Amino acid sequence: MEPSRSKTMSIGGATFDLFVVADHSVIHKDERSRAFTLPLGSKIHIDDVIRTCGGGAHNTSVGLARLGCDASYCGVLGDDPWGEAILQNCQKEGVDTAHVTVVEDEATDFSIILTARSGERVILKHPGTSKHLQDATFAREAAAEVDWLYLNSIQEGACQIEDDIIRILVEIPHARLTWNPGGCQIEMGTDRPGIAALLRQTDLLLLNKEEALTFTREPDVLAAMKHLIARGTKAVCITDGAEGVLATDGTNVYHCLPADCAVVDATGAGDAFGTGATWALLSGKNLPTAVRAGTINAMSVVGSVGAQPGLLDLTTMERRLSESRLAVSDTRL
Asked: Which residue has the higher pLDDT, 35 or 30?
């Protein structure tokens, strides 16, 4: 299936991000932890302020559009300058916003991201209109017409749309799903009926290491992967920062380490990985290639501030995939 002919829909949040970039003096270190230190009453010098658009579903829709997909975004924005900026960004990137709901007199999701030059960060997030992503605002009919759904992190109230997504995936044989569970779903665990049903319909499940252990209640990543495959998930990718990603299709475990690269800002790295991996599977590539594509996309994103500037276009992705020396090792699950 050619990605340029494939329709995708990213479902979830979009945020307006304000990056406040400071030097290393704001980082406090001791033997047990590292933290940003902002003494009360002090005046902290900052190096830069950068305004960008972000949010899981917005990031993945932009990433898939750049990779040649007919991408759309389904979510809820406020009737405010932040929401307008996100809509304008979608238009610039070629993302269809016909299924965006705009709520009057409420604020779009907003984040202030305090970032050190080393790439470390603290995110101050105001959850805004994304809480209104429910049955009444979910574009069921449009979602049933796409080739690949990408369900991003959603707020607890939005879990009501799980039944709609499950029904679409059961009734439409060609429909596929990438799922990056939200915090509320991870805390509920895999035994909750709605989550268990969604796992059975998931083609690509994306989690970081901490999320995977919490979600499955298992003691280690390998056990977590076996747990998720046993629940019916077709492929699982678990990321672990500089330690790379582990992925499985139920038979083999694949491991890919990122190449050495400068980390300016890690915001959006997970979304970039998921976008690259989803594009690869959508293009008919195998899971090891998908892991490489996701890693290449994530490596590009962490090289600049913000979740979207580093997202690769189709030509660059294909060239880097062919030129990259990233190795994927495999063992039996």
From this structure: 35
- Check: pTM over 0.85? Answer yes or no: yes
Closest CA relative to residue 274, chosen from 236, 310, 248, 242: 236
How far apart are alpha carbons 64 and 278 in whole angstroms?
8
Enclosing H/E stretch for 273: helix 269-282
* Tally of domains within the chain: 1
198/185 Cα distance (integer angstroms)? 11
Q: How far apart are CA 152 and CA 186, in angstroms?
A: 12
Q: How big is the CA angle at 56 (ends 117 and 99), to the nearest 5 degrees?
A: 140
Question: To which H or E segment does residue 248 belong?
Answer: strand 245-248
DSSP annotation of 32: S
Distance CA 275, CA 271 (A): 6
Please indicate, yes or no, if residue 36 is contained in any of the structural domains.
no
Residue 52: name the closest of 27, 100, 88 by CA.
Answer: 88
Residue 193 CB partners (closer than 8 Å, separation 6+)? none
Residue 15 β-bridge partners:
54
Structural domain containing residue 265: 3-12+56-107+129-332
What digits encode the pLDDT tens for the residues 151-161?
Answer: 998 877 777 78
